[in-house]
Fold:
Amino acid sequence: MGLEFLTRVRRSTILAGAAAALVFTTYAGLRPGLAWGLGIAWSLVNLSLLQALVVALTGRERGSRPAVKRAVTAAVAMLALFGAGGMLLVTLPPLWTLAGFLVPLLVLVLKAASMLLLRSRVWRWLVASPWRASVALLAVVVAAWWAVPALFGRPASASAPRAAAGARALDHALAAGSNPAQTSGSANSGGNPAPSSGPANAGANPAQTAGSARASEPSAPAASKVPETETSQGPEKFPNAITVVSRANPHAEWAHVLHQYEAVIFAWFVGLLLSVFAFLATRKPQMIPGPLQNLVEGLVEYLHGFIAGIIGKRHANRFVPFLGTLGIYIWAMNLIGLIPFMDSPTSSLNITFALAIVVFLYAQYVGIRSLGPVGYIDHFMGQPRTLIGWGLVPLMLPIHVMGELAKPISLSCRLFGNIFGEDMLLVAFATLGISVLAWSHLPFGLPLQVPFLLLALLTSTLQALVFMVLSTIYILLMLPHDEHEHEGEAQHAH
Amino acid sequence: MPEPREPKDRYSALRAGGLLLAIPTLLIVAPLVGFFLGSQLDRWLKTSPWFGILGLGLGFAAAGRETYLIYRRYQHDAAEERSRRR
Structure:
């Protein structure tokens, strides 16, 4: 463990601490978040000064005049730092500040423990087989699933009202037929002879018949008691597996949680599917590939050529893993919504925004790596070189920051709008199909949405490509390049 | 010795399309971002509506700047493509 280890500790602390500070600022308030962040910053500076002191006292140059000077400077700075630490504890919430102080130490301990673990025989035995590793990972996830709520979960009394509210909402949704599928079901049982708002095609998606059966039988009398304001929630998407499960268990809190996080669950599910697919395809690579290996190799080759065509061959190998994964993941998430009982996670703004934030952070990271921290700030200030340039910095800086912030928002809104719109289009035409056959009281409608399913196949692919192309271009705009018309000038980014 | 040709030929149209596709949403979103940030500042500093208006103006400027940069890159790529074809 050398100085490089400490550098890694610092880097990990900064990343984890910044992420946690954002979370604490959002959920606990500005002062706790600030105390946490400043506590970490204090501890990191302290660690650096300590490192400088130890190196000066024990390094090769120990005893020499510059080394003594460095040691004295570090000691004096540490004294000043302790004074600043005291001020922080007095002015900011002390518990949050202390917690921030401890973060680098915690990271240090965890990193040292992980180094020991990685070299151990048990670890090597565990990772030698992917199956053993998967089982171990599953065990850790299950343990975390149980341990985290037990340690940090809400007390039962606090969660009860929320659970009851969730259950009530589900009850109302079930009883009132706010879901289009349920209205069509009511029509079938004679409760509502003219289903004007039921868009779901019962024949196309069995989930809807299941939901409608539940809706029409036991809770039909309750429908009249539900206030109109609570039932008019606008058009809904086709029910998916999670919706069906949560409606089957309207009083269970876990069903409410599942329903609330269904976009995230489907996103994880798609990630898991892709991981298994990639694992199976690359498990035993052959010189003469089988169908699965052939498919994956073809896809990777196509993506490599595609991205290299945009970003240039020189940068392709560096960015294809990230951008290609992003493209395939979004494509799979778009397409999975076309399967009955499934839902497109990309029809939720939370998911698309999260994806766009990942692209945004990665683009900034690329910018810092390729331009250097000073070059990056210089780039944001509009590269001022003259007095007028420096005078324009207060104007250029916010303009540039807004331009950068607009990129992830435009990316996420475009993908969300297109996929959500596509889902709504399918629902609308399924509704029309049911309305056309409403007079016959048949438990299904005309499958008018089928042509639009084919269209959705195309738009899902196109939207995944557009997201990938624009992400590539945002990263490209961050890279320094030599323009033909500026051959004599230094490299710069846009 | 000339550098090996990059595989740009097959995807140049897509690249141009992608570049130009970024413009419309940026033109809409950047002023909205500016207005939102300005309004938040107004709320904190109780200076409504001045920072909102300023943010909106800066947002429009940011949108114009991003559009200009994207268009410049598009022109650069188009010129490169033309010279390659010759």
About this structure: The CA atoms of residues 170 and 250 of chain A lie 6 Å apart. Residues 155-232, 483-491 of chain A have pLDDT under 50 and may be disordered. The radius of gyration of chain A is 29 Å.
